[in-house]
Structures are given as C-alpha cells and as structure tokens.
Amino acid sequence: MLSWFAVCCSGLLHINAAYKGPRWQFYLFKPLTIAILIVIALMGGQESSYTYWIVAGLAFSLVGDVFLMLPKDRFIPGLLSFLVAHILYSVAFWQQFDGPMIWWLPSLIGAASVLIFLLLLPNLGQLLIPVGLYIAVIAQMAWGAGEFWMAEHSQMAAYAFGGALLFMLSDTVLAFDRFKGPFRTSVLLIMSTYFSAQGLITASVLFAH
C-alpha cells in the first residue's frame, strides 16, 4: 500500500512542478514514478513471461519519458521508445488471449484511431508516417488487451484493458497538445491519464496467474 501511495505522491509532485516548478522536481518525479512501478511489478508479480514483458514495457516508457522531458526536442526518440513499450505490452496481452475473436472491438478501436489520425493529419507534416504507425501500434495494443478481457473477464484483464484505454486517451491528448496547440489543462489531463494507465497495467501483473 505504501508503494502505491509513493506512486501517487510522485506523480502529483511532477504534475504540480509542470505548472509551478521547480524544474528539478519536474525532471525527477516523472521517471521516478515509473521506476517505482517497475519495482512494484518486480516485487509483487509472479516470475512469468507476462511480468517480464510488462516490466520491459515500463522500462522503455521510462526511457521515453526522459527523452520527452529533455530541454532540446527529442520527440522522435521518445516516440520510438513508447512505440517499443506498446509492442512489449501488446505481446504480454496477446499471450494471455485464448478464445474466439470479438470482431466489433477492433472495428470500434480502429474507427476511433482513424478519426484521431484524420484530425491530426493537416498538422503532421514530415511526422505523418511515424505518428500514423504509432497510432496503429497503440490501437492494436488496446485491441489485444480488450480481447483478453472479453475472453477472461478477470481482474487482471480488466486492469490491463483499462490501462490500455487510458494510454490511448493520454496519447491522444498529448498529440492534440503538440500538433494542434497547447492548452492550460493539457499537462494535467496527459499526465493523470498516463500515470493511471501505467499504474493499471502494473496492477495487472499483481493478479497474473
């Protein structure tokens, strides 16, 4: 319980520093939040391939966080780091799926992803292909988590699916903030959904069987 309290405090300190400073607090607590989640997963999860895939995804997320926080723009390395993280999460989720495919789910997620891409399209410029690929990868990650939940309806699967959906929401707000223009509450929305997403995905490890 104390470890989850530490996650909440660290995440809130990062969000507060994004608006009010100091800068050292901003740079420290974002990667620290993910680092604590890695420790939670390693200490509380079973020794299984699912745990290792999720921990690897958290590790690449931490790297992506560092790239995106650097004063000089490192958007592409950050994007690639999170792309790898979503692929690792996808492997973890799809490995758990064993059942008939629910085809309306990818149709719904795919339609939402295409709509987001079309809204961003006029502002993407040379990043059209990287952003399009990223959207496709995170969409299939959410699809994998959704199929897992539809097949099993376990607490583990529910946490995984909830985390995947929140990750899509966080990245969508981030994309609109970057390509359409920032707005005051964007950091709060992006980071609260991001930390919640990573927290739920980490929690799924604790219920792995």
From TrEMBL:
One of its GO terms (cellular component) is membrane. The chain crosses the membrane at residues 27-43, 50-69, 75-94, 101-121, 127-145, 157-176, 188-208. Its main location: membrane. GO terms for molecular function: hydrolase activity. It is a multi-pass membrane protein. InterPro entries: TMEM86B-like (IPR012506). Keywords: Membrane, Transmembrane, Transmembrane helix. The keyword GTP-binding does not apply. It is found in: Membrane. Belongs to the TMEM86 family. This is Lysoplasmalogenase. It comes from Enterovibrio coralii.
